[in-house]
Specification:
Keywords: Transferase. Pfam families: Acetyltransf_3. With 248 residues, the chain is of the alpha+beta class. It has one domain (11-234): Aminopeptidase, CATH 3.40.630.30. The protein is 27% helix and 20% strand. It contains six helices and eight strands, in the order ββαααβββαβαββα. It has helices at 26-33, 36-39, 50-62, 119-134, 149-157, 188-204; strands at residues 11-12, 17-20, 71-77, 80-88, 103-110, 139-145, 161-166, 181-187. It has an eight-stranded mixed sheet with strand order 1-2-3-4-5-6-8-7, sandwiched between helices. β5, α4 (119-134) and β6 form a beta-alpha-beta unit. The N and C termini lie far apart (47 Å).
Length: 248
């Protein structure tokens, strides 16, 4: 009997319904990519053209075909589109057309209307919970520009560890890239240990054990070396980094 391929489930949090990204969401993702506020600290530092935004949406949908369980989710609250969240593939060192199946890189984009309301973190917590609990992955990583202090502060405050600073060359470098990029990481063991520690603290305070997920969040750039050449011009260090104020 042929193995049944896993598909993305619909995920839910207190306020968000996260559904697998499809063609019906293209208008929403394009609106984000063509919004000057959203794109101020993303990619070229300018809004994408319509053609660029269409190609990015196609790529986001394609992530679901890379590794079973991975993909992009569109988030809604009370029926209104909030943004998208992604568990994306990491190509192997040996072959950029093949992907690691035990770890992922996380990213998201949130509509300015919902900035500062905790939706970015809420969706992120569910993504990371899904990665470790449901998919059994061993690591979730996140990358951002060195100068993106807000994203770095959020990752650090959530227990993520800075593991590397690196420098790449890009044909259309965004402002600040000359100071490099940073990679943060959290392992499955670290995440579950944090849950146990938090539950213990809650128990000590006699307020009960807090249910998963915890306050972990990644604001990351995908490793996009495997992106098809015809859309590689869209790729830069912050294409998948949340733009705008990051407020815990």
């Amino acid at each position: 009997m042929a193995a049944i391929e896993k598909v993305q489930p619909t995920l839910r949090t207190a306020r968000l319904e996260l559904v697998p990204l499809g063609p019906e969401h293209r208008e929403h993702t394009m609106k984000l990519d063509m919004d000057p506020k959203v794109m101020k600290q993303v990619a070229f530092g300018r809004p994408f053209t319509e053609d660029e935004a269409i190609q990015v949406h196609t790529w986001l949908m394609g992530c679901a075909k890379s590794v079973p369980g991975f993909g992009t989710w569109a988030g809604y609250t009370n029926g209104e589109f909030v943004g998208w969240w992604i568990l994306g593939p990491i190509p192997t060192k040996e072959n950029p057309e093949q992907f690691l199946t035990d770890r992922t890189e996380y990213g998201f984009r949130v509509s300015p209307k919902f900035w500062g309301q905790g939706f970015a973190k809420e969706g992120a917590r569910e993504m990371i919970r899904h990665a470790f609990v449901d998919l059994g992955l061993v690591e979730v990583i996140g990358e951002t520009m060195t100068v993106n202090t807000a994203s770095r502060a959020v990752m650090a405050s959530c227990g993520l560890k800075h593991v590397e600073t690196f420098f790449n060359t890009y044909p259309t470098p965004p402002p600040g890239i000359e100071e490099g990029e940073v990679r943060y990481s959290i392992s499955r063991e670290e995440w579950f240990a944090a849950q146990a520690a938090e539950a213990s603290r809650d128990s000590d305070k006699k307020i009960g054990t807090r249910a998963l997920p915890s306050d972990f969040v990644y604001t990351s750039r995908m490793n996009l070396d495997h992106v098809p050449a015809d859309i590689s011009f869209l790729v830069s260090p912050t294409i998948l980094v949340h733009a705008g104020p990051v407020i815990p």
